[in-house]
Each structure stands twice: as structure tokens, then as C-alpha cells.
Design brief:
Elements lengths: L2 E11 L1 H7 L4 E12 L1 H11 L7 E4 L14 H11 L6 E7 L7
Antiparallel strand pairs: 1-2, 1-4, 3-4
């Protein structure tokens, strides 16, 4: 399954912390890997969200989760997606990205 499922969460990075670390204040993006999805599941998700077929990455907002055809997804994919979606809040979203794994057989 070459499609990786990530959760992007934006956290406030206060200016006083930024001064201490020598970075800029503002939003800090935290990326957590949530699992993998099959090609079949991603195709169904793309169709339901109107994402073009050749997209190699796209995002799912909390509002988009209600549009997903969960009953049509394979059991493992549905479980992974629901678990990741359960961690979403107003400051986060899911990100799907195709990860090619070369075979050296």
C-alpha cells in the first residue's frame, strides 16, 4: 500500500518561545504518520471528494470526512481512516500522499 496517511496539526508557536530557540513565532506544523491506505480506498476517496485521478497528494479536512464513502472502503482502510479522523480538530487535517517503493527483484 503505497499511500501514506498523515495528520497535519497546526500549533501556535509563541513569540517568547521563538526568541529562546532563535526561530520565528507563528504556526508550527506537526506531522504525524497515521498509517497506509490501499489504492482502492484512495480511488474511492478521490471520487467522493472530486480530486483528480492523477493527484499524488491531497488533503481531507474535518468537514470532508462526512463526504467519504466509509461503507465502501475495505475494512482495514476504514479502520485506519476513522482512527485518524477521530484525532482531528479545528486546527488539523488529514493528508494522503503517494509513496513509491521501488522493487529491486
Amino acid at each position: 500500500m503505497p499511500w501514506k496517511l498523515y495528520r497535519f496539526k497546526y500549533e501556535d508557536y509563541p513569540e517568547y518561545s521563538a526568541r529562546i530557540t532563535g526561530h520565528y513565532g507563528g504556526d508550527l506544523l506537526l506531522i504525524e504518520e497515521e498509517g497506509e491506505l490501499s489504492d482502492e480506498a484512495v480511488r474511492l476517496i478521490k471520487d467522493s471528494l472530486g480530486v483528480v485521478d492523477d493527484a499524488r497528494k491531497f488533503e481531507i479536512t474535518p468537514r470532508d470526512v462526512m463526504k467519504l464513502p466509509l461503507e465502501k472502503l475495505p475494512e482495514g482502510d476504514r479502520r485506519a481512516l476513522l482512527e485518524a479522523a477521530g484525532k482531528l480538530d479545528a486546527e488539523s487535517k488529514l493528508h494522503l500522499e503517494y509513496r513509491y517503493r521501488p522493487s529491486f527483484d
